[in-house]
Design brief:
179 residues, alpha+beta, Aminopeptidase, 7-stranded mixed β-sheet, 5 helices, 31% helix, globular
Length: 179
Amino acid sequence: MEGRRVGLRPLADSDAEALFDAVSSSREGLKRRLRWVPAVGGAEDERRFIADAAARAAARTAVVWGIFENRTGRLAGVISLVGMEDAERAQGRFGAWVRTDRQDRGFAVEAGRLAIEFAFRRAGLHRVHARLDPANRPFRKVLKKLGLRYEGCLRSDRRLNGRWVDQECWGLLRSEWKP
């Protein structure tokens, strides 16, 4: 899928080194929000992640794309829709991260528009939702720009870095979506 400045495509085994570089160069910022970051020790870990993402895509339970800059072809981050296994609910949980040196360029918003269009037009989802740490103001801005609405806060919902953290819930219904 192509946008004006970024494109989305499934990650390939050949992306493992670039993905590890993106995580490594952004490790400090990412580990404050994402619990899997400390476990990433090398490109081999990323190859396993890529293989798992491909298996989940084949099973139609999730889609994970690399966010690639159109101008350079460089991997700028990752975006996903997960939790799509329940056809009755027709929902997907949206998540994204952009490497530190590519932030504040609108890449997450542009990639998010592409992912949400996929969710509603191609995957036939009824609802896209996201959870975030209330302190994650940049991702909240992205969600607002994408049209997601604040739905509430789950108090002490998950453990992150040894402490319980709240999770804000945001959602967008297909009927509310403005392409």
